[in-house]
Amino acid sequence: MELFDSLFLGLQVAVEPQNLLYCLFGVLIGTAIGVLPGIGPIPTVALLLPFTFGLEPATAFIMLAGIFYGAQYGGSTTAILVNVPGETSSVVTCIDGHQMAKKGRAGHALAIAAISSFFAGTVATIVIALLAIPLAALALKFTAVEYFSLLVLGLIAAVVLAHGSVAKALAMIVLGLILGIVGIDVSSGASRMTFGIPNLADGLDFVPVAMGLFGLGEIIANLERPAERRVVAQKVGSLMPSGPDLRQAFPAMVRGTAIGSFLGVLPGGGAALPPFTAYALEKKFAKDPSRFGHGAIEGVAGPEAANNAGAQTSFIPLLTLGIPSNALMALMIGALMMHGIQPGPQIMTEQPALVWGLIASMWTGNLMLLVINLPMIGVWIAMLKIPYRLMFPAIVLFCCIGAYGISNSMFNVWLMLGCAAIGYFFIKVGVEPAPLLLGLVLGPQLEENFRRAMLLADGDVTVFVTSPISAAILAIVALLLIAMFSPKIARKREEALVE
Amino acid sequence: MTTRFDLQDALFGAFLVVVAALVFYATRTLSFGSPADMGPGFMPRVLAGIALAFGLFFAARGFSRGGEPIDPPRLRPFVAVLGAIAAFALLGVKAGLAVAAVATVLVAAAGSDETRPVEVVLFAIALAAASVLLFVKALALPIPAWPW
Q: pTM value?
């Protein structure tokens, strides 16, 4: 009954008044940035990280996680009311959600979205708890050899499911790994690529890099496009969905949750892929597929359940194995290190209160979100009326303050400036910055484990294929790479992602 | 509409080549070692080698095929956003958060065609006040609030 003991411990941590309060902060901030198009969870988490240093690690993580899954709730509000996705994960919700709003059923669409998300969040919390223990037991068998292979798998797999060219994403990982080298080499004490700047001795801070690449580069690119006019649906109407509505939506909710939970665990899954898959599936299952695109309630329930389940289960690889499945989880790894916790397979045994407290807080957080989103919907609608011309200078300012706050030095602000320029360049040449962030955060660990493995094996590279676990992991990596570069599968993947 | 060269590929390739060259240059004095006993220069050079290979591949591909044109970049948003960050970095410690915040917001806002002068000045002052209260007073961020 280890599971119940652990969950009980987690619940005790999650309901501590301070943790409940910060969980509420997290989901409130998450909903707000979810509602607002133009600012996503990655720069927000990066921005708030420096201000969590004074908190207990568990409290800090409960809040940061709340931002991520809270953003999934908020994103759907904008999708339904304005037909603009608040987050990438709510793109499909626009299709039928906004049609429902046009027919005067905005309230029903919002309620179904929130209920589906809550249902999915509850199930996903249980899935995490069930999978965590066996995975952590497996992880205890890992040495530097296996962990190196696992990190390679994490990096490669994250690329496979990402948008755009695989070759470019691989090149971005290499760039990230190169940036990870900057600083004093741990084993020899030599400073590498610091260009004589003392601030670089401890390595590049990933927070200004993340804010520059994801937040500010995007702002510059947004300002180049003509401003869009947003029309907020006038009337929300009644919130309470009718019995037939719920009966129609429930199977979609269950299917969406299953898909989301599964895809979320896969490296590279996270929140973007599940809703698309769920929508396609609902269309296949429907007796009358022509209703889709004209306000089918399943078209809201399925994808909304999927994106929330996926957002939560993407924590599983992080909490059990210490590898991130997407760029946001890479930030979380960095945050763990900043709090002095070494991420990796041992994290569950060494930090049970943190891990289980976080898992349990996801359920309390989801409960809060249900309350925040339904009765308080008016507040979020009011927020949607904030024009971009005021929002973006505020984001720039907060990013500057956040970058300064990491180590109370202007060096990081200058670093962020450079990264903003590079981020803009990346948008212009059409490459995704997410793999770079993964490389930057995982780079130092990758090198350290590789060196340690080489020392253990006396420089014999074959150790990676003679250890069975490592060999199996590397075989998966090889399969993924072969699959990606075979033209037939590559085309299929493109179709799936475009849809 | 297509162009003669795939400029996106070519530019990204060139970027990678420059980064690789920079790494080779910056780590030229570090020892390479052997796989059993890696020196500090081992990883940087291996990675720079891979980046160079990727860079040459993209550059070659970019110049050998046509592609989508890149939307012409606009100078104003770029200069305004970077200028706003620079303003914060230069003013933050010397003039205090209140002044730096107003300057940052105003410079950034200059990058948008939609900005309305009166509105943005009031907004900047309000944001500066909120920042001082939140970050300096409540969160105790070690940054001066005022120039004196």
A: 0.83
